[in-house]
Write a structure and sequence with these properties.
With about 120 residues, the chain is an alpha+beta fold. It is built from three helices and four strands; from the N terminus they run αβββαβα. The chain has one domain. The N and C termini lie far apart (about 35 Å). The structure holds S-adenosylmethionine (SAM).
């Protein structure tokens, strides 16, 4: 069974589509592209870490393949959209582990948000 729970758990925003306090079960990118620029105050992300394993929830039994052939490109796509929709004074949290956090910092976050905003 595939768990496609949304990376963006709760978003507070005033956007093209009404999303305040709404939980979407969808691909994060499909949701993000519907939001208008600089409309979101806070983004908290807990994406797959690219461990190479199948991750199974002990609580629900749902699982997902935690393996991306091009993890950094995949991240770049949705982090770019996060950057676009985030307000200038907004905050984004990226929750990762030691598998890829260094690459995500250098090749995604610093490139998109710029080092001085990290
Ligand atoms: C590290 S887990 C986070 C689990 C979550 N924080 C929780 O406590 O249940 C990553 C989650 O991202 C989901 N996911 C994977 N690809 C996704 C995508 N393209 N869009 C939205 N969610 C995705 C997975 O199904 C998984 O539930």
């Amino acid at each position: 069974m595939h768990d496609a729970s949304c990376i963006i758990n709760v978003i507070h925003c005033n956007s093209l589509i009404k999303m305040t306090n709404t939980l979407y079960n969808a691909d994060a990118l499909d949701v993000l592209i519907k939001l208008s620029d600089e409309s979101v105050d806070l983004i908290y992300t807990d994406p797959p870490f690219n461990t190479g394993d199948v991750q199974v929830s002990k609580r629900t039994g749902l699982s997902y393949s935690d393996k991306h052939d091009d993890y950094i490109s995949w991240m770049h796509a949705w982090v770019s959209e996060c950057h676009r929709v985030l307000k200038k004074n907004g905050t984004m949290y990226l929750h990762l582990d030691d598998h890829n956090v260094h690459k995500a910092r250098c090749f995604v976050m610093d490139k998109i948000f710029k080092e001085q905003n990290y």
